[in-house]
Design brief:
Blueprint (H helix, E strand, L loop, with lengths): L22 H12 L17 H18 L25 H11 L1 E5 L2 E9 L6 E6 L1 H7 L4 E4 L2 E4 H7 L5 E2 L1 E3 L10 E3 L15 H11 L4 H16 L8 E5 L6 H12 L3 E4 L2 H5 L11 E5 L7 H12 L2 E4 L7 E4 L3 E6 L14 E5 L8 H24 L15 H10 L1 H12 L1 E5 L2 E4 L5 E2 H14 L8 H12 L12 E6 L13 E6 L2 H12 L10 H4 L1
Parallel strand pairs: 1-6, 7-8, 9-14, 9-15, 10-11, 11-14
Antiparallel strand pairs: 1-2, 2-3, 4-5, 12-13, 16-17, 18-20, 19-20
Helix pairs in contact: 2-11, 3-5, 7-11, 8-11
């Protein structure tokens, strides 16, 4: 692991000779760059305990040094957002002055088959710069008391601008990060919020990602960094995977996501309810790359499930502003979900859309730790973070192949009543109880209707309604206990058959009946774990506490 603050030539850092600097500190910096890494992550993979105070002290030293080294350098870009109405002291006086003023903040664009007025506005509630569409008549009314003399007549300043041959006009609108479009197409992409630079350090955030967000898991750590770098580089299509962070309040989930989000500026969106994420009117998502769903979703929200999956995987999105025709743009959306709830996302046994991380809670309440991290980011850390993510090599990674985590298995367990039912039966080593007598697993045949009735009782105890038939119940069994849902295989752990045997000691000879036979408990457990892609903690009274 090479830390981002190390230059390729550590003894030749950039120094602005026009600015005074403290010679002793620069010498100390050179000495520091030649020493071993204070807390190399490679050595910490097997030991999550490390000296946090020393790491904070090193980070503060880096911050002080880099503040000296960066003296006089270009600061991060800030968008110049002109006011729609000028202040009274700078009121335009002539027709051309009004035209120049309005042309800085307004443009005409064809959108969804309609001619609309486009302007950038800062949200008073969030501070986020947003694209706002309006109609011509709305602006005529707004500027009704602002008139200017033109050709011996007094006309509305907006109408003067609207009719001017040199007004800013676009025939189409698109969202194309990093691309140069035709002059006639308005690109919603406005660039990153910082200029990348090697003169800075994000060591504490890096350690936070490894120790807290990824809980010391090296494989997850590398995947998360690849996922973040891909969101910056946009070198290929959407990864088709969302990061899901589960942990207690105060662990630093939001600190991590907001630090990454700050790189994107106006192209970062922080949402706090599912309606904002999956609702009908979604103009706030038209120019967004990174979405932070903060306690904004739960796994049982069936109505929003389809929209959520489309947002993660589909290459295009239909944008539907209020009172404006819908239009389609390419979707670059990357989604990070964070919550302290147990059930977050709807996950199937072969789920590939979510990388679920159980966040470490060791840093809860450590304000010194979080304050030092923010100081480091504010003093060159953001620029260095952007630089390193832009230059991270992604040629060998496959983001669609996310690590299968214990956290994802728990989401599958909470999403699928059949999985819960099978775990219960295998832990109890019985299929069901007949006349209060447990029927041991794997001994003889079991009638499908009896097994379904037992499943129904189990679901009611959980407070769930399943509404399945014998046919759909059988399909759910095969999903978990068969190699293939449709083809028979010698490794299948459940078989469906017809029989006239008197299975349940009926008084009269039964007609042909549908029934199941099962392989041994160990074979069935192994099959379920193959379906999950990871191990499962069997015979645990508190599954969620275990994970």
């Amino acid at each position: 692991m090479s830390y981002p603050f190390k230059n390729t030539e550590p003894n030749k850092p950039y120094i602005n000779n026009d600015e005074p600097f403290e010679e002793d500190k620069i010498k100390s910096y050179h000495k520091f760059m030649e020493m071993d890494d204070p807390a190399p992550l490679a050595e910490l993979n097997s030991n999550k305990e490390y000296d946090v105070q020393s790491s904070i002290a090193v980070a503060d030293f880096e911050t002080e040094i880099f503040t000296l080294l960066r003296a006089g350098q270009t600061q991060s870009p800030e968008m110049d957002l002109p006011a729609l109405l000028p202040d009274k002291l700078n009121q335009p006086q002539t027709d051309e002055q009004w035209f120049e003023h309005l042309n800085k903040s307004l443009s005409v664009v064809m959108c969804g088959g309609k001619s609309l007025i486009l302007r950038l506005a800062k949200s008073s509630s969030t501070g986020r710069i947003e694209v706002v569409f309006g109609k011509k008549n709305e602006y005529i009314d707004f500027f009704a008391n602002k008139r200017v003399e033109f050709e011996k007549k007094f006309v509305n300043v907006f109408q003067y601008w609207f009719s001017h041959p040199n007004r800013t006009t676009y025939s189409d609108i698109d969202f194309a990060p990093g691309k140069t479009l035709s002059d006639t197409v308005y690109n919603l992409w406005q660039g990153f919020a910082f200029n990348p630079s090697q003169l800075g350090s994000w060591r504490l955030l890096d350690e936070h990602i490894f120790h807290v967000i990824c809980n010391g898991d090296s494989l997850l750590y590398e995947y998360v960094l690849d996922w973040l770098a891909d969101a910056i580089q946009l070198s290929s299509g959407k990864p088709g995977v969302s990061l899901v962070l589960i942990g207690k309040k105060g662990t630093g989930k939001g600190v991590f996501v907001n630090a990454i989000g700050k790189l994107f500026g106006r192209h970062f969106l922080h949402l706090t309810n599912s309606r904002q994420l999956t609702g009908q009117f979604n103009s706030h998502m038209q120019d967004v790359i990174l979405i932070f769903a903060d306690e904004a979703f739960w796994g049982g929200d069936k109505q929003a499930e389809g929209n959520l999956k489309s947002l993660i995987t589909e290459p295009f999105i239909v944008i539907e502003p209020k009172f404006v025709n819908a239009f389609t743009v390419k979707s670059y959306h990357r989604l990070i979900i964070a919550t302290n709830n147990e059930w977050v996302v709807p996950a199937s046994e072969d789920e590939r859309r979510y990388c679920v991380l159980n966040v470490n809670d060791d840093r809860i309440g450590n304000s010194e730790y979080f304050n030092a991290m923010q100081r480091q980011l504010d003093n060159g850390g953001y620029e260095a973070l952007l630089h390193d993510l832009q230059h991270r090599d992604l040629s060998q990674c496959n983001l669609r192949d996310a690590p299968r985590t214990d956290g994802l298995s728990v989401q599958t367990y909470l999403s699928d009543p059949m999985f819960q039912f099978l775990v219960h039966c295998l832990n109890e080593q019985s299929l069901f109880s007949l006349n209060d007598v447990p029927q041991p697993w794997g001994e003889g045949l079991v009638l499908s209707r009896t097994f379904l009735a037992h499943f129904d009782t189990f679901c009611k105890r959980l407070g769930k309604t399943h509404g399945v038939t014998e046919n759909s119940f059988g399909k759910s069994l095969r999903r978990w206990l068969c190699e293939n849902d449709t083809q028979l295989n010698d490794n299948d752990c459940v078989r469906y058959r017809k029989t006239r045997k008197n299975i349940e000691n009926a008084m009269s000879k039964p007609d042909q009946q549908s029934c199941y036979s099962f392989k041994s408990i160990d074979e069935c457990k192994a099959m379920i774990e193959r379906k999950l892609g990871t191990t499962w903690k069997w015979n645990s009274d508190e599954i969620l506490d275990e994970y």
